[in-house]
Design a protein that fits this description.
alpha/beta; Rossmann fold; 9 helices
């Protein structure tokens, strides 16, 4: 765990900032919530949208719960924190969930707010593979959270071009992180082990009541 630090993202602030935290959330866990809070503290983000995807674009997930279950769990996870909001926009849209389509919709729905995609350092190397990344970079900031022991590549290795590569690196920040993986949580459930403290209590209860991730 490393302490939150404020990077250069504060220096270029103009608009109110809206954080975007996307993923499968299969299931959502405490690490997701800590990451969102770290983004708010580090980059002066006003609120964070948690957006479970309908179909993930870059990977297949074993034991993927239905979109309805994953959305319900995200809603339970963020319940009670007015800074966090669960969004069903990708689930309503259906099909493969691409960030470019989500950001376009957010810019229409949340006018006057600057969208900021929150990603981990492990996603940084794959950013050049995202659909229409050349269109996405000018309309959305990327806030990347460094991970202890993970070496951040230089701008040339990001394959985003020298200008955008450096801008993305300017928004790499440190933040409190907890090494929790959804895959490990699913494995523990399948083995009959406790997931207490790894997920919010309401999510733990939901998983048990709906018999998710059992063998």
């Amino acid at each position: 765990m490393i302490a939150a630090t404020k990077g250069t993202c504060l220096k270029r602030q103009r608009n109110r900032r809206l954080g975007i935290l996307g993923g499968t959330f299969n299931p959502p866990h405490t690490g997701h919530l800590i990451l969102a809070q770290s983004a708010m503290e580090s980059c002066d983000i006003e609120r964070v949208l948690f957006i479970p995807c309908f179909v993930p674009p870059h990977k297949r997930v074993q034991g993927l719960a239905s979109p309805e279950h994953r959305l319900a769990m995200v809603r339970l996870a963020v319940e009670g924190d007015h800074r966090f909001e669960a969004s069903d926009m990708e689930i309503r849209r259906g099909g493969v969930s691409y960030a470019i389509e989500t950001v376009r919709a957010i810019r229409e729905q949340y006018r006057g707010m600057e969208p900021c995609f929150i990603i981990g350092a492990d996603s940084l190397r794959e950013l050049h593979q995202w659909k229409a990344i050349e269109e996405l970079l000018p309309i959305c900031r990327f806030i990347t959270f460094a991970r202890p022991g993970f070496k951040i590549p230089d701008a040339a290795r990001l394959e985003l071009g020298p200008v955008w590569g450096q801008r993305v690196l300017d928004d790499v920040v440190g933040g409190r992180q907890v090494e929790i993986a959804s895959s490990d949580i699913r494995h523990r459930v399948a083995e009959g082990l406790s997931i207490r403290y790894l997920v919010p209590d309401a999510v733990d209860i939901y998983i048990a009541e709906h018999h998710l991730y059992t063998r």
